[in-house]
Specification:
single chain; Immunoglobulin-like; four-stranded antiparallel β-sheet; 52% strand
Length: 329
């Protein structure tokens, strides 16, 4: 016997031996596990562990028969090594809602034929249970960090004040990028001689604070009005228009516009005074012009910004001067 302590499933070669010459010519084997064999040399394996008595009955050339036995102890075979299994992830840091491709991969040949997938609470740990052709299974995990998409809030650079948002101050820095769903608080602060007139874009109203929830890219603007008013003068070419800087009034005083032709030509210019909050306007063609928006007269004018414009519809250049600012009322 070439192995007296084989493992389950291991082939063992058994041979009849004798000091007689010539040796046996025929042999019948009983392997102790219910199986039999023939031949002076034979091969056998046992399918379970244990101690087995092997018996051989040999016939010699002269017809005489001899019997011999041997004890074989069969041990359990060691378990096969575990299958190699890994999780392949095409994107280990996806954003919410982004498709991710996962694959059960193995250096074993053949690889797995079936796989069941699961994830942990929060969808951060991906687990795969794979089955190989030999019926055995293996498990592998991979860590996936799912992040939120980011969106940018863009602020139009203001004139006459600043807008602070998310730790930045515009006009020095006019964009903020945050995770989806993040609220961004904005505050408008007027410079000296100006007042906050209102928001545009993702914010609205005339309150100097605003909150924008970032569920997409957003844009805002802030308007500041000059509270002192100012003069505007020059020479208008035919067909040209000139406008004042916006004047802001909170309604504590009227908004006033006055204008005159200053070159002595007496030409008529078209003067227009507009309340931007309501869209109301006064317009007149003359060589001089005076108009007031008075608080309490007309609706929606205050608080707000007011702009004066002058247009030259004559055939030649005309010199003018114009004032837009606080009035006497």
């Amino acid at each position: 016997m070439n192995n007296g302590s084989p493992l389950v499933g291991t082939d063992v070669t058994l041979r009849t031996v004798s000091s007689d010459t010539p040796g046996p010519v025929v042999a019948q084997w009983s392997f102790g596990d219910g199986q039999t064999g023939t031949g002076t040399t034979t091969t056998h394996h046992w399918d379970s562990a244990g101690s087995f008595t092997v018996t051989v009955q040999a016939t010699f050339p002269d017809g005489l028969v001899a019997v011999a036995t041997a004890q074989v102890t069969v041990g359990d075979a060691p378990p096969p090594p575990p299958h190699n299994l890994q999780v392949s992830v095409n994107n280990g840091s996806p954003l919410v809602g982004t498709d991710v491709t996962l694959q059960a991969v193995s250096s074993d040949t053949p690889g797995p034929t079936d796989a069941q997938w699961s994830d942990s609470a929060g969808s951060f740990t991906v687990t795969v249970q794979a089955t190989f052709p030999d019926g055995r299974g293996a498990m592998a995990t991979a860590q996936v960090t799912v992040g939120k998409p980011k969106f940018t809030l863009t602020i139009s650079p203001p004139s006459g004040g600043t807008v602070s948002a998310g730790g930045t101050v515009c006009p020095s820095s006019c964009s903020v990028t945050v995770d989806s769903g993040t609220p961004v608080n904005l505050t408008a602060t007027a410079d000296a001689g100006f007042a906050f007139a209102g928001w545009g874009g993702a914010c609205g109203g005339t309150t100097p604070s605003c909150t924008v929830v970032m569920n997409g890219n957003r844009a805002v603007s802030a308007t500041f009005g000059n509270t002192q008013g100012g003069d505007n003068s020059g020479t208008l070419a035919p067909g040209a228009t000139a406008c004042s800087a916006p004047f802001f009034s909170d309604g504590s005083k009227s908004a006033h516009m006055s204008g005159n032709v200053t070159d002595g030509s007496g030409q008529n210019l078209t003067w227009t005074f507009t309340a931007q909050a309501s869209g109301n306007s006064f317009s007149h063609s003359s060589s001089n012009f005076t108009s007031d928006f008075v608080p309490g007269l007309g609706s929606g004018n205050f608080p707000g910004t007011f702009v004066g414009c002058v247009r030259n519809d004559t055939g030649g250049p005309v010199a003018y001067t114009m004032f837009v600012g606080p009035g006497p009322f």
